[in-house]
Design a protein that fits this description.
The chain is mainly α. It has one domain (2-250). It has 11 helices and no strands. Helix 5 (94-113) packs parallel to helix 7 and helix 7 packs antiparallel against helix 8 (166-191). The longest helix is centred in the last third of the chain and has 26 residues, at 166-191. The radius of gyration is 16 Å and the shape is globular. The protein starts with a helix and ends with a helix.
Amino acid sequence: MITILIVVGVFIGTISGFFGVGGGMLLIPVLLTLGFGIKEAIAMSVVQMVFSSVFGSYRNYKLGKLVINEGIWVGIGGIIGGVLGSFFTDLLPSNTLEYIFLALVVFAFLRVATSKKLSDDQEEGSFSKLTLFVIGIIIGTIAMMLGVGGSVMLTPVLIGFLHFSSKKAATAGLFFVVFSSISGLVYKLVAGTFNTLNLDITYALCIGVASVLGVVLGISLKEYVKDSMHKQFLLIMYIAIIALTVKKILF
């Protein structure tokens, strides 16, 4: 199992770096397929997202691709949301979480698919700091409740409403995951979630550490594709996630 999880970690890390996602929305269906329960998958996903988002954002910053300014307010809201979401995860039944997760990914797919064609040099929109803060709380709550980083929701917002290009939205989305995932992980550790689930944290650490290697690869690949192609790849990823989740729910 350890070897399989390491391979999964590298793959998920590559996806994280390329698409600017925490990786949870793809990791969770994979872990479900491997036989883990939804709540175990969510807990492991949170650990992986901390590794991939922190290192990935640092890498983007060193490359001069990460613009912090407004993103910090969404991130601060995400800290509060991350704690709230982790709390609600322990209250909701597993099948409810699966349906919420599916609805979330379908929304993201439709929002990105219907957005106008954008380019890297197009002027971006803006929200007030308070609005960004509230958006962060809402996204962070739902994200940690489902064990995803939140970029699955934030990316469609940035593309559809703030006119970010796909690649810029990916970079900003990964930065948001830093805040939501760390706060979510701290809550789970304090609450003793891993002990309650009787889950070996070694599994989660294997995926997390392996994902760092994948992040390096994913960020490097992102620089070689045009934004229009990046958006198409993003849509394909959403379709794959929807298919995996529907399969789990039905079968």
